[in-house]
């Protein structure tokens, strides 16, 4: 197969603590900073910028201070005028855009790998915005061959990049990594080690790519976000009347068919899936999504044909 | 074996939301209140008072507003003078003591069952303060025969009742129920159902006891709190340098022997258990204990001989 020639990836950032209580990323970024201090800038085979994205939220071990920072990186929010009453996260998002962007410009950093945890049983999921970012797809494919302890999947949000609101959208080929299940405010060694392996292997892929390695294309599975489903709620008080059904809990990316159980009410009744099309639920029972009115998202499975890629020589 | 005759248990309270982000108890108390509204006061075979213990923390889905309420029920704190600047939880603890106590008095409620969740893999654990509260021991024994999905254990804190600081210490035979693992801020149906079964079976036991059923004694296993162990920390910044070791994570109540792994540092080194005596760790990697400087507690296993009990007739 003919190769697609792509530019080398010059600058990469690894970001943790965009949500201050998702601790694997916080401790991994701090460990990388310790390693750089101990071994010097040559500790990785490519230049890596490390960023603790929301330091005040990390300090307080909260998701955010004023507003969810990972919704602050749309072009509109990044260019909104600042006042003293602007939310802390909006102010800090603009500072990160100055450090790593400017978003959408030729100067934007090549790659942001933004580290997240979820209470959902998502294994290792790479999330990004386009069905045709071959760099991200190849990195996912590479991680699938290297990481065997949990499933590795790619999820595409399919939002125009100017509307894309999360930190990695500032870079040319960014993605976020979700690793779970891990309670927020807790660090589990097993989840930390999976995240560390994913970051190490991403750096490894970029180094190999920049050094001229040819990465073969082929067919690849991806999931595309379709829509969100809320919990059943009391119509007056808006309080939850049901939890995720035990048969659905922890089964992220399973295939939902008509009649499958979705929720179990606190009084014991089962609510079933009644839509026509079969879809794949993910972010099932994610802690941070209760306040957003999301019990889980639904995705459609796609098969993408990705090209063979290698670096463009000057 | 000769029976010990004990007074009937006239009043019982089921409390949830003492920690506002431990959601099984919150939803279970709300469901019990809904059932009472639907079916009337005779819904249970004994009188049950239901209490949402920390309503402001529940509203904000936080552990507490000003201070951990489950440390506010010592005799000293309950009798401390109130001012406008007293912590919300201390004020509200005094109100609950008026409703359910007074602690230590003849008027105190017979039983408080206080509902908690933990991120630790504790199964169902009954926690209370004395190695000779035969009512609690018999309820635990009864739950052990009825609940088969998770281990049921009893843990004794062995603190004098006036120093005992948690809500259930207000009652004559109180205990708290810890069910886990469940992330704080999340409700899992499987954990909710275990908690519901435990409360239903406790009510069932009290009804049978009050009705004259004889409960046979015998030998019983219990765990007694010995001491707490903190995470390894950077001596200057006090930040964690290690997580619970994967071989210890989720193994609450296992037997720790010299040389067993305790922690895995973020740079990859293992820290082992080096004490002489073999003990049992519990509350391993509990989210809320990071700020308290506790990675896990250690307990000693006891075998208690409990007497046969039956109700004292007037």
TrEMBL record, chains A, B:
Q: Where in the cell is it found?
A: Apical cell membrane; Cytoplasm
Report the SUPFAM superfamilies cross-referenced here.
Zn-dependent exopeptidases
- Which top-level group of life is the source organism from? Eukaryota
Listed GO CC annotations: apical plasma membrane; cytosol
InterPro entries, per database record: AspA/AstE_fam (IPR050178), Aspartoacylase (IPR016708), AstE_AspA_cat (IPR055438), Aste_AspA_hybrid_dom (IPR007036)
Q: What organism, scientifically named, is this protein from?
A: Phoxinus phoxinus
Enumerate the Pfam families for this protein: AstE_AspA_cat (PF24827), AstE_AspA_hybrid (PF04952)
Chain positions recorded as Zn(2+) binding sites: 19, 22, 116
Q: Which NCBIfam families match?
A: PRK02259.1 (NF002601)
What is the designated name of this protein? N-acyl-aromatic-L-amino acid amidohydrolase
Provide the alphabetized UniProt keywords: Cell membrane, Cytoplasm, Hydrolase, Membrane, Metal-binding, Zinc
Cofactor mode of binding and number, as noted: Binds 1 zinc ion per subunit.
Required cofactor(s): Zn(2+)
Q: How does it sit in the membrane?
A: Peripheral membrane protein
Q: Which GO terms describe its molecular function?
A: aminoacylase activity; hydrolase activity, acting on ester bonds; metal ion binding
The record's catalysed reaction(s) read:
an N-acetyl-L-cysteine-S-conjugate + H2O = an S-substituted L-cysteine + acetate; an N-acyl-aromatic L-alpha-amino acid + H2O = an aromatic L-alpha-amino acid + a carboxylate
In short, the EC number is: 3.5.1.114
